[in-house]
DNA sequence: CGACATATGTCGTGTACACAGCATATGTTC
DNA sequence: GAACATATGCTGTGTACACGACATATGTCG
C-alpha cells in the first residue's frame, strides 16, 4: 500500500530541514510535475489544464500525480512555494543582524509576484498566500532563533503578522496603477514592518 | 531478478521502430545518464570520470547505472548515437528520391563530428563509429525500402560500405590542417558516394 | 432530460529504481 | 611489496512508479 508518500496537502516540505532524507525519486517526480505545470500555464489558463495533461507533460503516469497531490490546486500551491524558495535560495535571503535583510525579503516577494507565471489577471486565482507566507515565516524564525523573545511577546504571532504584512503590501504594490519600482516599495515595506520585528525580539 | 532491462552493450535501441513500448522510466533514466555524461565531459576528460560521478550527476543510484550499461564506455557509445539521432531527427535527414538527401546526411555527420563534446584530442578515443554508422545505415535502409535491389547486389553490404565511406571522409575532413567548409566537404562526399548507392538499387 | 464523451479518483499488480552492504579490483604512497 | 583509500561490480530487499481497469463525476449536445 503506497500510503507512505503523504500526498501534498500542504506546501512542499522543506528539503533542508532536519527531516529524514526524502527518496530522490519522490523529489524528482514532484519537480517534474511542477515544471510541467509551469510550462502548461504559459500556454493556457489553470482551469483549462487537466490532470492528464499535467501528467503527460511531466512524462509521468496519472496515478503518480495522485501519489503526490490530491488535486491540481495543491500542485499549484506547492509549485508557487517551491519557486519562491528557489528565489530565496538564489538570493540568499535571511533575517539576521545583517542590515537590509528585511528589505531584501520584501524585494524578493515583490519580484516574485511580478514574475509569476500566467497573466496578472490569473494571479488573483493563485493561492500564493500560504506558500509565500510560510517561507517568509521560516526566514524570520531562523533569523531569530538565537535571540530570546521580548517578555510577553509571542514571536510566532509576530512572524506571521509581519509575513502577511509584507505580502499584503507587495500585493497592493502589484495592483498599483502607477507602480513605483520594486526597490522603492521594498524600502517602504522595511520602514513599516521592521519596527514590529525589532519590538518582538531583544536585539 | 532485474534481468529484463537488457544492459546496453549495443547502440541505443531505435525508439520509433516496431519494438514494444519501452517503459518510460527506462528511457528517462538512460537519458539522464547520457545528459550527465555530456555535462561531465565538458568539465574533465572521459578517463577521469567515475561511474559514481555519473550517477551523482544524473541524480540516480549507481546500481541503476549498471541496470542499463555494463561500463561507462557503453554509455559513451549510446550517448554518441543518441545525440547523432537527435541531429538526424532535427534535420529530418533521409535518403529517398529527394535530391540532396545524401549531401544532407554527409553534412550532418561532419557537423556532428565537429561539435562533439570534449576537445578534438579526445575525439579519437570516442567509439563514434558504431553509433554513427548504424544510424546512417538505418537511413539508407529506410530510404531504399521501397525499391528492389539491383540484380546480384547485396544492399546491406552497400549500405554499410557507403556509411563507412561517409564516416571515413568526414573524419579525414575533421583532421585537415586547413579545413574546407562542412558544406563543401558534403558536396565532395556526395559526389563520391552517391554513384555507389545509385548502382546498388534500381532507381 | 437522456445520451455520450471525457475527466477524475482509485485499486491491484508488475516493473524500475534506491539503498546498504560486500567482495574484488585498482591506484597511490611509503 | 604492504598498507590504505577509492572505485567497481554485484546482490537482496524495500520503495516508488507504470499500467490497465473500473466506478463515478462532469461537461456538452440534441
Rounded radius of gyration of chain A (Å): 18 Å
What order do the SSEs of chain A take from the amino end to the carboxyl end, as H and E? HHHHHHHHH
| Whole-number count of domains of chain A | 2
Distance between the termini of chain A: 50 Å
Helix content class of chain A: 55-70%
How would you classify the helix and strand content of chain A by structural class? mainly alpha
Oligomer classification = homodimer
Count of beta strands of chain A:
0
| Uncertain spans of chain A | 9-18
What is the number of helical segments of chain A per DSSP (H or I, 4+ residues)? 9
Which term fits the overall shape of chain A? globular
The average pLDDT score of chain A comes to: 82
Largest interface: chains, residues each: A-B, 4 and 4 residues
Strand residues, percent of chain A? under 5%
The largest sheet of chain A, given as strand count, sense and whether it forms a barrel, is:
none
List keywords for this structure.
Tetracycline Repressor, domain 2; DNA-binding; homodimer; globular; 203 residues; mainly alpha
